[in-house]
Amino acid sequence: MTDELTTAKWFKSSRSGGSRNCVEVAFLAKGLVGVRDSKNSSGPALIFTSDEWAAFTHAAARNLA
């Protein structure tokens, strides 16, 4: 998994406004999703299943409404 995280295509939200104070996300093999701190790109990353990621983004969107 470490190799996959190193070569992953990480991205930030278009709403980050170029700030370094945000998270980056990468879609990985087997439906997994990586999340890391944009200020520490070589640091640890959290890995979520697609179901966990869907639950998180759904809850976050619901709380913004």
From TrEMBL:
InterPro entries: DUF397 (IPR007278). Pfam families: DUF397 (PF04149). Residues 8-60 form the DUF397 domain. This is DUF397 domain-containing protein.
